[in-house]
Amino acid sequence: MELRVAIYLKLILEHLIEHQMNRYQILGESYEDGPCTITSNKNSDSNLLSLDGLDNEVKVDGLPNNFRAHPLQLDSSSDPSNSIDGPDHVKFASSLHETKKANTGIIHGACLTLTDHDRIRQFIQEFTFRGLLPHIEKTIRQLNDQLISRKGLSRSLFSATKKWFSGSKVPEKGINELKNTSGLLYPPEAPELQIRKMADLCFLVQHYDLAYSCYHTAKKDFLNDQAMLYAAGALEMAAVSAFLQPGAPRPYPAHYMDTAIQTYRDICKNMVLAERCVLLSAEILKSQSKYSEAAALLIRLTSEDSDLRSALLLEQAAHCFINMKSPMVRKYAFHMILAGHRFSKAGQKKHALRCYCQAMQVYKGKGWSLAEDHINFTIGRQSYTLRQLDNAVSAFRHILINESKQSAAQQGAFLREYLYVYKNVSQLSPDGPLPQLPLPYINSSATRVFFGHDRRPADGEKQAATHVSLDQEYDSESSQQWRELEEQVVAVVNRGVIPTNFYPTQYCLNSYSDNSRFPLAVVEEPITVEVAFRNPLKVPLLLTDLSLLWKFQPKDSSGKDNEEVKELVTGEPVMIGTEVISEFLINSEESKVARLKLFPHHIGELHILGVVYNLGTIQGYMTVDGIGALPGCHTGKHSLSMSVRGRQDLEIQGPRLNNTKEEKTSIKYGPDRRLDPIITEEMPLLEVFFIHFPTGLLCGEIRKAYVEFVNVSKCPLTGLKVVSKRPEFFTFGGNTAVLTPLSPSASENCSAYKTVVTDSTSVCTALVSSASSVDFGIGIGSQPEVIPVPLPDAVLLPGASVQLPMWLRGPDEEGVHEINFLFYYESVQKQPKIRHRILRHTAVICTSRSLNIRATVCRSNSLEDEEGRGGNMLVFVDVENTNTSEAGVKEFHIVQVSSSSKHWKLQKSVNLSENKDAKLASREKGKFCFKAVRCREKEVATQFSEKYIFADIIFGNEQIISSASPCADFFYRSLSSELKKPQAQPSVHAEKQSVEDAVRLIQKCSEVDLNIVVLWKAYVVEDSKQLILEGQHHVILHTIGKEAFSCPQKQEPPEMELLKFFRPENTTVPLRPSVEQLSNLIKTSLHYPESFNHPFHQKSLCLVPVTLLLSNCSKADVDVIVDLRHKTTSPEALEIHGSFTWLGQTQYKLQLKSQEIHSLQLKACFVHTGVYNLGTPRVFAKLSDQVTVFETSQQNSMPALIIINNV
């Protein structure tokens, strides 16, 4: 039984010892390692550390919290020379490792039953209360009695002899003055050791008050004997006893600990004990929330002799800073960095990595880029040393993607380290997917996609259409204009209706275009993707084998999807061809775009995912002081030092949705599908070339050029049309060949016009011809902006080309003009997805001043020789040469003046000058007067006819056929805006309608439909060679007496006026014609002799017969009242003209039919000689069928003067 109890006791003691050892070991590790995060997470079993905020976790292998693999223990495989603690530590570690290895398989207490457990527990309890504690109490009592008896005698003798010999008190020595007596040994029965033993027993049974007294007494004895090692231990235990006393009767004597630490370190030279004392004191201070004092104490013990100890103390000091009431976060991070550095020097790579990771949590995102770079660089190197390659790549990646402020050499070193580590990572899984590369930056939103071939360069006089290219900047206003042009031509093709599924063609997609739908691309036509790169580093980056990354889903001709999906790097060339850029250099801090092409060879759905390339640097550029390059970086002058293969995805965020209430209250983004084109079947492709296309013209100048249309596809095209906002700028000629001249071009000896040689007898007499606007593509209901291109057979076969003449006319306004042409064409075989295609061209024309023409028309007072009814008109044309000879123009010759109208025509020129050659030098003016008559009834067109009468008055020997191309073309283009005016809508109320009809009839009397075309030639000296330029100007006359101009007049801005507020009394103001319009309702003419001789000495009264002709200018019956009672009351008129009297009936009431002429025979009575004005009759008129009377005086603007002579 006793043997069994002895065995049980031995097992219990071994178990207790091992349990206590493990307990102290775990406690030591918690102090040494510190918490893994700033928040002091107590779950120390976790082996996952947060690394640099990279959203991934670093698993620190080999850090279990047990004694067999302590984190501070050096690895057996590490180099012993790296350990600063010497070889003893290595030997101790190896022996400890062997001991633990031998005891690895022993399991204690496996054969114990539950009864054995109860008996052991009962034995321990009885052993403690009946044996151990009474024994300790008895020992303390005996030691106390012995010490009282011994110490009392020795103290009395010592004190007496000391007083006898010294005579005074011996001063105490300071710590620095004491000698090193660490070699002093006391015998076991020495009273000082007995006191220390009793203090230890009291401390063991938690009798801290008595233990403190004993330690304090022993401390004094040790100091008297200068046993500094013993004294330091007594001071240390006295401080601990004072701290552990319940109720804290006395404050914690921190100076005891400071003295003990100084003694251990300076006198005893025992850093292990000093370290133990510092850790113990720091824990006591931390329990009292004195973190600042604890941190200062820990930092004070750091030194250069032991990196491991210094790293441990610095880490603990860092935790003191973070646990303060007001945490000192930056001091925590700084001391963590110091601790990590010392751990690294001590060979503790895992602990160094942990410290740097915890410090990175503080520095991240604070704008301390240099500190972040240093920490990430160290984390990357430590992770690489520990073979944690993914973490190393992530750390180096953060150095490169941040806006680094490092020097170029430093950035080059970081980049080389990253490439080297990255290459090692990629070699571990060569068959895996391509990882993402951090450099260069890609601005995904700035990615542009262009569908089609590149624009051809100009070849001599042959200039290709500008169309759309990636070199053009986006302009929202221009884009809207192109959209409107396309809608206009589509509406014309679809009989005035835009289809519901119409979507404007977009050849270039960018961040401003509408990318909500899948774009359409044509098979065998390239797709160009412009990717915007930016190099944030100060070192150049070299991208090699740069190409697009794509995924393609082919479809068969029926539109069904195939199951096979081709993807990524090695796409089949049969489906999609990929362009590879061998080298693409991006200089330091440079933004550069790369244009990559794909060539689809099959219909289907294409998805462009990103770019793939080799990232490298140029060698011979970077040498870094203090940072050595990793092995494997071979050098070469201006050659690729190292490169890695990777990819970057193009992820474009669509526009934010803001239509519905839900979208406005939340953040939602629409799709952006510019990188997901649908490859459709083959379509025709048109190329347009302009030959001899001018860049500078005179205003109104006519120039002939040629346009070449080429079908470069394998499909025939048809329905070719061109649309422009400026149709008056160009023409392809009339619809019939008769109307189009065959002259090749406008040069020195040939004309762009169709001309006929005339004899001299026809000079100043109009030559009449006619033409219909329908022959020139213009008529009621048509779109003059949409012009069909006269292709032979209306079809352009594959590979075929055709050249067509094109006449150009310089705009009437001076300056630079951008004129947009949009060519529309379709495929002969209708395609379901793409119904049509377009080609854009922008022509830039610079115009300079030439002639300024103004014209007026007025009614002629002459009524003789009229075949038509309604009277004649006089047309006055003023021509001014506004050219200042900047274009080398010598002079202008007016070669012909033509008229075009449905109802009027020029009859002859009434210029009195005999000079038939109308020349105008710079700043000269010329005035022309022409007589216009109504057309004959057989020539007059019906209301809805588009036939115009052309009358040409020539001033030379050649007649320009104004009713043929290009003269008539440009004339009709100038009228296009007039033809597009909406017709007046009928009113709702009958009474109001009748009033409006009356007003309209009166207004028509003052309206005239007469258009003047002035054709001219300009003689230009260029390069010592004289050229003849031709041109024409148009003046559209609408109203009698109102001046019209050939070019739009600049309107001066109105002056600022005060803002007036008023309340309109009656908003419905009745329509009433103006005075000028009423004055043209009835045309009056007085016929009388210019002078009349009368013998006043024979007969005092002189009677002169006068005929008053009244002509109804309207197309309705008019009631006329002629009142002869009107007399001139103006004194000026009386003084100049004198007074006379009308004899006979003083008032006449007449009714004139439509365009009727009536004459009244009047008599004027004069009493003496003089000059008289006969224009005194007042004429009133109103429409016969109208209740509302519009009447006004019909006065002639010119006086009718008669001279009365006496004979």
Automatic annotation (TrEMBL):
InterPro entries tied to this protein: Ig_TPPC8_1st, Ig_TPPC8_2nd, Ig_TPPC8_3rd, Ig_TPPC8_C, TPR-like_helical_dom_sf, TRAPP_III_complex_Trs85
Official protein name in the record: Trafficking protein particle complex subunit 8 isoform X3
Domain named TPPC8 second Ig-like: residues: 699-839
One term under GO cellular component: TRAPPIII protein complex
Organism: Enhydra lutris kenyoni
Domain of life according to the entry: Eukaryota
A Pfam family matched in the record: Ig_TPPC8_1st
Signal sequence interval, chain numbering: none
SUPFAM superfamilies found in the cross-reference section: TPR-like (SSF48452)
Stretches assigned to the TPPC8 third Ig-like domain: 842-1035
